[in-house]
Amino acid sequence: MIEPADFIDALADNGYRVLSGVPCSNISAVFHSLESTDRLQYVSATTEGEAVGVAVGSWLAGKKAAVICQNSGVGNMVNPLASLNAPYSIPTTLFVSMRGAVGFSDEPQHEIMGRETRKYLELLSVKTEMLPESAGGLGRALSQTNDELLKRQSRAYIINPKIINNPKGILSKKVNKFSQNNVSIHREIGGEMVTRQAAIDIIMQAFGKYATIATTGYAYRELHATGDRPNYFYMAGSMGHAAAIGLGVSINTTEPTVVLDGDGALLMKMGTCATIGRFSPKNLMHIVIDNGLFESTGGQSSNAGSVDFSQIAQACSYRQVWQCTGRDAIERFSQTIDPLSGPTFAHIRVLPSRGPAISRPKLDLQQVATRFREFVISKTTPR
Question: What is the domain extent for residue 246?
Answer without folding.
Answer: 185-379
